[in-house]
Amino acid sequence: MRRTLFNEDHEAFRETIRDFIQAEVAPVYEEWEQAGHPPRDFYNKLGELGVFGIQVPEEYGGAGETSFKYQAVISEECANAGVSFGGYGVHVNLVLPYLLKYASEEQKKRWLPAFISGEMMTAIAMTEPGTGSDLAGMQTTAKRDGDHYILNGAKTFITGGVLADRVLVVARTSPATPENRRAGLSILVVDTKSEGYSVGRKLEKIGLRSSDTAELSFVDVKVPVEDLLGEEGAGFSYLTHNLAEERLGIATSSYASAAAAVEFARKYVQERTVFGKTVSSFQNTKFVLAECATEVEAARSLVDRCIEALDAGELTPADAAVAKLFCTEVQQRVVDKCLQLHGGYGYILEYPIARLYTDARVTRIYGGTSEVLKTIIAKDIQV
User: Fold this and answer.
1) Catalytically annotated residues
2) Using one digit for the tens of pLDDT, what is the confidence trace for 323-364?
């Protein structure tokens, strides 16, 4: 079906991203996976390309573009090449919305230029050992002491945590109340060079191996009060405001992964010969790819509709939950079937389908597990 989501500007941008990937990422991507993250100067190259500032207002040095479509293009082109941009997604799709929405004018002038250039890479630290998705149960504390907060605690599963220069740390600045466990949480934008701040283990994952994921610890870290994001105690409400966009971002990358898997498999079965015939000539191959292409088309239609809704300010949390649940499930089924069509070579990491397979597993966990999303959807339909 003809796609109408993108215009000529988006397609020109797509060509720029595609050329950049072929020149700067694809030739060295295996080295990134072995290292567990891109080299630090790669983010400066992304800054020079201008992708960090697409959605940043012009007065802070950005392009002032409000549409999510440019981020969708990047997700699609990375999937098509079987690569990722490391901590890019967290920096732009997770952290930036918090800075644009809740940072003061002084903070924006102080942080956004370095954010755009790649000089200041960011991450967000919510999850703690033992608490998982229960954000209200977090134990990290930040106690006011004059013109500083004293931060103590630990975080885990922090994407981009190894190379980050600033981390949005969610901490308890006052005790929870019996009436509201979510009260008393605040967000501090912590300088990773601060005394008492340390990066623990770089966690070894089964997928997304070019994206660093770390444990962080804080021992009497002094955080200036001017680095508090928004209002003290309002942290939990802040965390919920960006969930719809975050989940749509995951849905978009999941759809793109599934679409890329079909293309990798289509090319492979046309080249691979078994019993003197190409694998593509067997009826089973045709039927499997037809099933996969149909699922991808359905996921694409849902993603496109949700992107339009987001750009119009109409995307609801339930809409985003539907998109993430459906697209990540499609991704799982499609990538698995496409790997099967590769036979034994699908299990070898030099083939992109193998990376798509291991990278796909986490999408049904992070950003809200499938079980949590089903709860949101059920509530929306009043079940």
Assistant:
1) 246
2) 999 999 999 999 999 999 999 999 999 899 999 999 999 999
